[in-house]
Amino acid sequence: MHKKLFIPGPVDVRPEVLKAMGTPMIGHRTKDATELQKSVSQKLQKVFHTENPILLSTTSGTGLMEGSIRSLTAKRAVVFSVGAFGDRWAELSESNNVPTDLVRSEWGQPTTPEMVDKYLSTGKYDVFTITHNETSTSVMNPMEAIAEVKAKYPDVLWLVDSVSAMGGAKLEVDKLGIDVCITSTQKALGLPPGMSICSVTTKALKHGEQVKYRGSYLDLLQLYEYVEKKPYQYPSTPSLSHMFALDYQLNYILNEEGLENRYSRHLKMAEITRAWAKKHFDTFAAEGYQSVTLTNVANTKGISVKDLIARVGERGYLLANGYGDMKEKTFRIAHMADTTIEELQEYLMVLEEEIAKLKS
Ligand SMILES: *Cc1c(COP(=O)(O)O)cnc(C)c1O
Fold it and tell me: What is the whole-number distance in angstroms between the Cα of residue 32 and the centre of ligand 1?
């Protein structure tokens, strides 16, 4: 039995999108591949609210996180972490021998603009990273306030992990001045896992020229060079299947549902889930910083989340436990991609019924 996915990635994929994944193969050096690439990039620019070039990588999002921090940091990076995925960025950076400082917030709390200001004002850094939407804690960072601080440091590059938010929450890359913005296909965009996407400024690429060892497969400069010089092609064979599916799904997002409608559906789902969480338990993330694509429920009643997962599993749903150390202390309800409000409400009812059985 297929379990309906309410985990924060991979998400359920619409059958039409799966069908587009199965489009007959084309040569990756053909004009058709160039056209496909161009089409996907132009649509992604709209989703990212950017005019910056778009790079695709046939890796999951972690690939571009590693590639961007490695190929663009010439001096020292400061990684602001609000949870497991922030910590991951620091691990990726350190393991590539990039001088890195890790600045952690207490889990459940955001990165504040004051923190960013304090570190950037030292002049020690040429790169800083922010997690837009931290999937381990369901904290959404105050991107506009951080952007205001960032504007004071035009020479410092801003790298953003928007893996679990892009396509579900509005993030205006150009308006905020984000140099590299990264997402994966299997979260709010609603595709299978296997490809990641980023936008990158020419300023960031220019800066990267100072970095001697940028790696190769995930070197942003090399990816860009191919997109630029051999217009819209890639150094190695990309997942053309994902590109067919992206082209299809982006048409749906932009022209059928509409971006603004998509954002408001996500917000509505978040409000419903937060209210449900507060009624039965509590929300985990600090007020004012709660994610619009998933909700961490604080397990205030001390139920067995493991048992709950088994029970809802029998009813055809997949529930996510807390991440890492937060297992059993929290559980996570994803409300992203193409999930409808009706599907979410049905799921919350099932959860409620099974929780009631657990307690008796
Ligand atoms: C899922 C996720 C990642 C990792 O992305 P992959 O595509 O699994 O490599 C990174 N950051 C955040 C916030 C995520 O939710």
Answer: 30
